[in-house]
Structure formats: structure tokens, C-alpha cells
Amino acid sequence: MATRPSSHQLLVLAVALALVAGLFLLPKGIVKPKEGKNELNQQTAARTANRDNGAAAPSTSSVEGGMPAGATPEQPHMAVAPEQRREISALLAKYSAERDPGVKLRLATDLAAKYRGVEKFDSAGYYLEQIAVARPGEQTLQRAADAYYEAFSFATTEERAKMLGAKTRELYERVLKNNPDNLKAKTNLGMALMASDNPVAGVSLLREVLAADPKNEEAIYNLGILSLRSNQNDKAVERFRELTVVNPENANGQFYLGVSLALTGAKEDARKAFTKAKSLSTDPGFTASVDEQLQKLN
């Protein structure tokens, strides 16, 4: 049965599109794919990956702080619908005024959910981090780390990627101190390290994940994306073929198998992969990206 990619899958697709299109200033040791007729459309990538722009900057201040650092009362939700803005503003007022620690944590949970609902992931991460500060543990830390990772994945500038990547790494490292066998945390930490001065450590972490779980879809997928970024197109084909064997209904895997095959000149195989990817999703943005790539094969 065909499955629609999850919001997180589409999120990672967005950042991968941006990376392959060369919108990021890539970290040392990682080079852009060569430009040519198979390059992905930069405007589409920028439009898709811009979802978290304008959100409040991450902060490490305590749960007593009412807002992420550098934010104004309007900034975190300036692009939000009026009704949602009113709901968030009311919660922020309650959060700032509340003195009972338990109630304040419940309000932080509500704020995180509201910000996630409007895709302001770093603002959600801020409030989830406040919960983790008050109640440290693997699960609370991971929820905060996951939110910052989503914001990191949408970053469209080098500065923002580094800032959010640093916060993401800090939190996932704390998760792994609680549980060194947490493969999701290790996978996401590996990708966050790609925006650091030590991207090789990120690749090593992803390989560690595959050593522990050879069928880990996220690790295979991310290694495929990194192969594309470093112009190792044949290696990318291997990774995405492996992913589509593990899960033939992984829409992003089929899409990037098509991308990597096209870059190696295997147009007919690329067309089959893109067609398969399109059959797995009804998401308009995803299918538009597939149609664009199919058109480039003509």
C-alpha cells in the first residue's frame, strides 16, 4: 500500500533539496555537486526550505525566562494566522506570569505544541528545553533535540545552520549520555555535525548506526544525501538502491535514487524511480518536485 511521506520525511527532503541545489555554504570537506542540466531547481528548494525563517532564536536561559533570546513579543509568531497568534500570545502571557513550577511546565508544553503546529520549530525547541532543564532525562532531552533538529534542517543560511546545529548537537550529546544506544539521536547528531568543523565525525556516527542496524532507513538515506553532496554519485546510487530494497515505499528514497541515477546518466532507470516516487505520495510539493525532475530527463 502506498504511503504518504511523513512531515519529518518531507522536512528532510526540503533540506536535502537545498543542499543539492547549493543553497548552503557547505562545511569543510564537503563540496557541492557539479552544476549541470540535472541540478535541482534552487527556487523550489528555497521556497520549500524557508518554513522556519523568522522564528525566535534558540536560547539556553532557564524556565523562568519568558521568551527565547533576542525575540520581541511579536517576532516568534509574526507570520502566524491571527487566531493562532492570539492563542500563542495568551499562553505567553500566562507563562510569563505563572510562578507555580508545575503549572509553568504545563504551559511550556502547550507553547511547544502551538509553535510546532505553526512550524516554528526552534521556538518549540526552546520551551521543550525548559521542560528538559526542569525534568532532565532521555525522553525530555530528545523531544527538545528533535525540535531543534527540525529547525536546523530548515536553516537556509550558514549562520543559522551553525547556530541551530550547535544547539542540536548539545542536546543530542546529552541524550546519548543517558543512552549511548539511542540510534535516532546518534543519526541526527551525525547530520548536525555536518554543519560543524568536524563533518567527518558525523559520517563516522552514521556508519556506527549502520553497523548496529544495517537496515536503518534514516542512516542509509542521510549517507546517500552526503554522497550526493560530495559528488559521489555512483555511491549515492548504491545507498538509495539499498534504501529502496529495505523499504520500497520510502518515497524520498525513490526520489533520490532517481536524482542520483540521473546524475550518472542512467535516464531510463531514473525515470522509473521518479515514477515510483510519485506513486507513493499525494503531497503537492513532493509531486511537483518529481514532475520537475521527470521533465529534465526529456
Number of helices: 14
- Following the backbone from N to C, one meets helices and strands in this order, namely HHHHHHHHHHHHHH
Strand element count: 0
Mean pLDDT: 79
Straight-line distance between termini: 29 Å
| Class per helix and strand makeup | mainly alpha
The 3D shape can be described as globular
Q: Gyration radius, to the nearest Å? A: 20 Å
Region (Disordered): 36-82
TPR repeats: 217-250
Keywords: TPR repeat
InterPro entries: TPR-like_helical_dom_sf, TPR_rpt
Q: What's the gist of this structure?
A:
The chain is mainly alpha-helical and 298 residues long.
Structure in words:
This protein has 298 residues and is mainly alpha-helical. The protein has a domain at 53-155. Helices cover 66% and strands 0% of the residues. It is built from 14 helices and no strands. Pfam families: TPR_16.
SSE inventory with pairings:
Elements: H1 7-21, H2 42-49, H3 82-97, H4 101-117, H5 121-134, H6 138-154, H7 158-178, H8 183-192, H9 199-212, H10 217-229, H11 233-246, H12 251-263, H13 267-279, H14 284-296
Helix pairs in contact: 1-2, 3-4, 4-5, 5-6, 6-7, 7-8, 8-9, 9-10, 10-11, 10-12, 11-12, 12-13, 13-14
